[in-house]
Amino acid sequence: MKTIDAAEALLNLERTVAAVKGQDQESKFAKALATLKNLSRKEGIPLAIVGGLAAIHHGYERFTKDIDVVVRSKNLDILTRVAPQYGIKVVWKDPEGWHKLQCEGVPIDVVPEGRKPRKDAPTTIPGPEQLGVREGTGYAGIAGWMETKLGSYRVQDRADVVQVIKVATPAILRRIRKHLGKVHAIYLRRFDELLGTAKEEKEQERERGGTE
Questions:
Q1: φ/ψ bin of 165: left (φ > 0), alpha (ψ from -120 to 50), beta (otherwise)
Q2: What pLDDT score does 1 carry?
Q3: pTM assigned to the model
Q4: By mean pLDDT, which of 6-10, 48-52, 173-177 is the weakest?
Q5: What's the gap between Cα 196 and its chain centre?
Q6: Distance between CA 154 and CA 151 in Å, rounded?
């Protein structure tokens, strides 16, 4: 039974990665993403994809079961009003904007601009434009995506940052540090700590004959 579960998980991962790369149009993730793109284009609501799908987009191919999208504060209520017209179910309408939607069986978590990702976060969540998505649906730029991860800072967030750091070029890492330095000193400190972790892991992998 475990072998079947592992094989199914691998297949799901492969299809999710293919959906992110635009190589699969038939999976539930691909269909859900296409629906979001259609809604955002027709309604003029920019949606910035963050979370696990953005981790895949930036080079860390890991399993995820949902789609996280940052939505402008002024569009939060509009989104839940028009979503059903596109076949998107409103599962939960949150007073603070942390809405829960569903499309093609895929959970869609709304991340509201201007709210704090956690109570002790030093800053609020940036809007889609600040994340590099001015129109339509797109993936948050790597620096802004890391900002959201360093804000929520759960175990999975830290793991995502470390893995993406490991595949990023030195030039990209310098750009990320510059961006985070302008946002908040705490984010820069967290980034530098995870950068150290990433370097240690890469060194261990080299010593054990793993990936370069």
A1: alpha
A2: 39
A3: 0.94
A4: 6-10
A5: 22
A6: 9
